[in-house]
Design goal:
The protein is mostly helical and 366 residues long. Helices cover 74% and strands 0% of the residues. It has one domain: Orthogonal Bundle (ABC transporter involved in vitamin B12 uptake, BtuC).
């Protein structure tokens, strides 16, 4: 017999439940730190100082946040359609191939044309690679979870082949393309802000961060202020009711997966055009999978996704600094802390919803 659904106020579901899950995860992480003989308070201080205590730390934090915004939004859009897109890594990989081809083949164009075209190429590559699993589910009944997992491996294999046999840098022992032309890369943030009198250290943070913020606004407008967004949410809530209302679930599934893949392509824009300035193997570095946790913690809402992305950005940058200051707290332990947060935000979501519901009932009874 299934448990009765837990009804919570919207503010509690969107804000309080994620906060409680994160607090519980950090408590468990603190116990792990105590277990190795270190002070959790000192470790937390060092982590926050490394992520937010300097201009360089903040810049690195926002660089990681940029990746997590794109991948979190990609998962969130699919969530609204009732889909679980875990193919962000593969979609970003294909987007990286598309953006590299655009930057290399269209290099004679001026930057004012080349950069937008390369960004559109990344979105198109990701959208195509997201559309195919959506089409397979909508028309063939192939579950999108299985197909996106498989497509991750196909994309990785295709990337290896192309970098080694087709578009690789001649004479290089590393699987990579030639470096892009100067006018084909995104402007670093320290150069972008210098004319305004803001001096920042040179870091990987670039103008893709502004694209990520724009994507947050665009997804909010799409999901909550457009007819297409209403159709996506209706299909996600009840496909039969959507069909009865004249909405085609099959069409919405394909459209939602294409949008999801296009957003995942933002990861390629940030890494390939903004940081590496060439296509490398494994540039996705697991960001696509972390995007699942970002979307879960953010409850699929762009504001929540932005905040959750910032949290993981703090963990990534602060964790790197923490491992330098406290060698006993290795980088792997920081990854474990992130894994605990993912576990608590995802698999134990129902538990924390019950905890919050009980707390609210107790407060109202008093």
């Amino acid at each position: 017999m299934s448990a009765a659904p837990i009804d919570l106020p919207r503010w509690a579901n969107a804000g309080l439940v994620p906060l409680v899950s994160v607090a519980a995860a950090l408590l468990v992480a603190g116990l792990v730190v105590i277990g190795i003989g270190e002070s959790p308070l000192e470790a937390t201080t060092l982590l926050l100082r490394g992520a937010l205590g300097s201009a360089e730390g903040v810049s690195f934090t926002l660089y990681y946040t940029t990746n997590f915004i794109f991948t979190g939004l990609a998962v969130a859009v699919a969530f609204h359609a009732g889909l679980f897109n875990i193919g962000g890594e593969g979609q970003a990989t294909i987007a990286g191939i598309f953006v590299a081809l655009a930057c290399l083949w269209l290099a004679p164009l001026p930057g004012i044309l080349l950069v937008p075209l390369a960004i559109l190429a990344a979105a198109a590559g990701g959208a195509l690679y997201g559309f195919i699993p959506g089409w397979l589910q909508a028309t063939r009944g192939s579950h999108v979870v299985i197909t996106t997992i498989m497509f991750n491996f196909i994309a990785a294999t295709l990337s290896v082949y192309l970098l080694v046999e087709v578009i690789g840098k001649p004479g290089s022992m590393q699987a990579e393309t030639p470096e892009f032309a100067r006018h084909a890369i995104l402007t670093p943030m320290h150069e972008l802000l210098a004319p305004l009198g803001l001096k920042l250290p040179a870091t990987p943070l670039n103008s893709a961060f502004l694209l990520a913020l724009a994507a947050l606004v665009a997804v909010w407008a799409l999901i909550y202020r457009s007819r297409l967004g209403y159709a996506i949410r209706t299909v996600g809530a009840n496909p039969r009711a959507a069909a009865y209302a004249g909405i085609s679930p099959a069409r919405i599934i394909m459209v939602a997966m294409a949008i999801s893949g296009a957003l995942a392509g933002g990861l390629a824009v940030n890494e390939v055009m903004g940081v590496q300035h060439r296509l490398l193997l494994d540039f996705t570095a697991g960001y696509g999978f972390v995007g699942i946790a970002v979307a879960l913690m953010g409850r699929g809402h762009p504001v929540g996704v932005g905040l959750a992305a910032l949290l993981f950005g703090v963990l990534y940058q602060g964790g790197a600094e923490l491992s330098f200051d406290k060698p006993s707290i290795t980088r792997d332990m920081v990854v474990v802390i992130g894994g605990v947060i993912i576990l608590f935000a995802g698999a134990l979501d129902g538990l924390f919803r019950r905890v919050v519901a009980s707390g609210l009932r107790f407060g109202s009874a008093r």
